[in-house]
Amino acid sequence: MxxxxxxxxxxxxxxxxxxxxxxxxxxxxxxxxxxxxLAAWPDDDVATFQTAFWTARRAYDAGQVSDxxxxxxxxxxxxxxxxxRALRTADTAMWTRTDDRVLAVLEHAHLAGLPxxxxxxxxxxxxxxxxxxxxxxxxxxxxxxxxxxEMCKPAPAAYRHAVDATRVSDPxxxxxxxxxADNCAAARGLGLRVLHYTGQISHLEAAxxx
Length: 210
What we know:
Largest sheet: 5 strands, parallel
Shape: elongated
Distance between the termini: 30 Å
Strand order of the largest sheet: 3-2-1-4-5
Structural class: alpha/beta
Number of strands: 5
Order of helices and strands: EHHHHHEHHEHHEHEH
Helix content: 40-55%
């Protein structure tokens, strides 16, 4: 699905931001290989590991299953306590790298007084970690996570929670930024402004900096 976005001509009253794919960088090949190795997966079959990982991920991100249940589904067996701790730590770590260019733009917007709300589909361990980061504590007015809300984008209620958190009454004065076209389409359907972020930092600057 292709969804084009034109940065708004005026700075919004508030912004709702996705995390992964906007602020957060995608995991590297080395990180995927490391996680698969911790899972005792064959070194030459990481692609199958990723398939198993994503097949089980939706319920885990939504907070519907525990760490143990998630990894048991991925592995096809229950991991022991030591393996579970290692998998959880490595999984969380590989989603915490951030794009310095994006954070610089958000810092500028924050200094100008623009309220920003994080709306992420992150699971509990990653949510807890993001809450402790300096950028999240300083830049975000609120941080809302799929696992805590027990609902995820593109469910309309997830967006409504985020809009409420901005304290802006008119959705047309709120800009939603996400790297997924389906999430952006859902936000647009609820009346929010939309920026489908595809890595073009100039588009982010145009939307948030005047």
